[in-house]
Amino acid sequence: MFPKKIFNALLDLFFPNLCVVCEKKLVEEENFLCLDCLTKLPKTNNWIVKNNKLEQTLAGRFSFEHAASFAYFVKNGSMQRIIHELKYKNNPRIGEYMGRLCGKELSHTDFLSDIDFIVPVPLHSKRLKMRGYNQSLELAKGISAQTKIHVFENAVQRIVNNKTQTKNSRIERWNNVENIFRVVDPNLFTNKHVLLIDDVITTGSTLESCAREILKNHRSRLSIFVLASVD
Ligand SMILES: [Zn+2]
């Protein structure tokens, strides 16, 4: 193993650190985002708002205690760039970094007070192989590093590799995501309050499918946290 300093110097040489949002060169204490873009992130602050917009979107679809997103996903906005970097640019580290930002916000609130453990929405093994990492797990790791709440990364499996579904109708989307997850050990969830983590929520149908699978154990409870949501 290289000492960390040398490793970072090599990284900087081959991959100069640019802000993933504005592409300005980062100064030494900045990571992934320049200070300007970091302070301008369109945070929702909805983790301290009861019956917030995301909770209204998910209400009646499955039962949950709390639901919140870190920031708003706007077309061509900063969160779109960050999510793109996280999902398609082979950059898992930005996931953990963003997870830490989320964890920092949540640890000042009672959103996590009752959470027993964290579960990231899993990827199908084929997609995991293609991407090399699960972006939701990277977020979960960051939240865990900040909050010391344990992550169970293999508690749920994705057994069907469904296609991206932005162009389907709502009913087609639902048919497309039914029974795509499997809980590995249902007993793990008994009498537990689980924080389910995903990267971005648009229709919520994938998240809903995963949540429903976990909630088949009637003695478990769920809260939801996602990095970005459409306003
Ligand atoms: Zn920037």
Q: Could you describe the largest sheet, including whether it forms a barrel?
A: 4 strands, parallel
End-to-end Cα distance, whole Å, is: 44 Å
Specify the structural class: alpha/beta
Molecules bound to protein:
zinc ion
CATH architecture of the largest domain: 3-Layer(aba) Sandwich
Unreliable stretches (pLDDT < 50, length at least 5) are none
CATH class of the largest domain: Alpha Beta
- How many domains? The number is 2
Average pLDDT rating: 91
**Could you please say which CATH topology of the largest domain applies here?**
Rossmann fold
Number of strands: 6
What share of the residues lie within helices?
25-40%
User: Which H/E pattern describes the elements?
Assistant: HHHEHHEHHEHEEHE
The spatial strand order of the largest sheet comes to 1-6-5-2
Q: Count the helices. How many?
A: 9
| Cα radius of gyration in angstroms | 18 Å
Shape category: globular
* Proportion of beta-strand residues: 15-25%
